[in-house]
């Protein structure tokens, strides 16, 4: 949302965070699809014509299903733009980290190899990173121990690390400190670049925030994004 | 469930694991209550007369609400039996760990001090422990780093550690290794002791398992509990 706002003008955004049922990345495909459809139907009530699925797990598991169920919406996902950035930048070997569901889908590996057969793609599910971020542990002993556990085996093996989850950019500082030689790509910026000029109207952007639970993470999240003038008070809704 | 089976005979159990919406411990009280009521209403359809809330967060946040909404059920929770064990065994100072919701409720501290004003009670929310257990990281570098992060400040300050979450007993080995001088109390065994003889019929116990999602954690869980003859194949249900 933050990245999208930077490249949009005069647009009206309806943002829904399903905080009552996070994390999606540990759930089955059936459940991710059901939840994603419920979210999409909620947003559709506002008369939207475009849906941006800003979650890697839902992008990996539910976008085809959403397009089939809601053919009237133009639906974007976060995977394709990140893949296109990676195949432009990677030298020889790419590491992809994500939730168990995203990594289990194999979508990043498949899409990268479809575009560049010369690249080697390594994948790893890193399920502790979302809880780390949600607890605000963005640096320190635990964070370093967890990151080393997941990523040290790739030292000397990859040149580019793809952060395949919308939570992971918050750990980018810690990752760069521990693994300074890697190129790090996240999915938010490539998506915003991809959608640059798409929402190009008159005046200020308007943002309506909805969440399904007022969790502690939401409180921390709001405390940080309130700095951004475009964001308003959220509404808590039940799906 | 495993502990209850050991102290029951000829009883029929309907077990529901809300795997599609875990973890409860990071959610608001309103959401925990709503989810707990949905679970209870699902189980009530089977004609149960007793409900055991085998989750510390739901016990801390939703039991009074469930008793008000479902006065026809006899409802047990996991907190009181654990508190009674602790006040029998603790010497001077007790540390309580649990989810953010359980610890935020203050229920353990309140109930312990109600019974023994001489005890000092320290509390700490340890939200990474559920994800650690769900990923099967029960020992090793990460587990030790996380446990040290949360618990090292209590070395020399407490004599008894209360594991206020049903996931934590799986980390008991790692905790005892790092902090060998502490008495460790979990909530499953005291609850089973409390309910000993309550379900005392003829023949074998029967267990019907229901889950709301077939997650990877569920697969691992089933692989371990299948060893127990009383447990059958689970059914996946939507609430």
Structure description:
Two copies of one chain form a homodimer. Chain A has 239 residues and is of the alpha/beta class. Chain A has two domains: 2-78 and 191-236, Rossmann fold (3-Layer(aba) Sandwich), CATH 3.40.50; 79-186, Rossmann fold, CATH 3.40.50.1860. Helices cover 43% and strands 18% of the residues of chain A. Chain A has eleven helices and nine strands. Chain A has helices at residues 2-6, 29-44, 56-69, 79-89, 100-105, 107-115, 129-134, 141-151, 172-178, 188-194, 216-225; strands at 12-17, 50-53, 74-77, 93-98, 120-125, 160-164, 183-186, 206-211, 235-236. In chain A, the strands form three sheets. Chain A has a four-stranded parallel sheet with strand order 5-4-6-7. In chain A, α4 (79-89) packs across α10. Chain A is globular and about 50 Å long.
Strand order of the largest sheet of chain A: 5-4-6-7
**Low-pLDDT residue spans of chain A:** none
Counted up, domains of chain A total 2
- How big a fraction of the residues of chain A is strand? 15-25%
Tell me about the largest β-sheet of chain A: 4 strands, parallel
The CATH architecture of the largest domain in chain A can be named as 3-Layer(aba) Sandwich
The greatest interface between two protein chains, and residues involved on each side, is: A-B, 32 and 32 residues
Please bin the fraction of helical residues of chain A. Answer: 40-55%
What is the alpha-carbon Rg of chain A in Å?
Answer: 18 Å
Quaternary state reads: homodimer
* Strand elements of chain A, count: 9
Distance, first to last CA of chain A? 21 Å
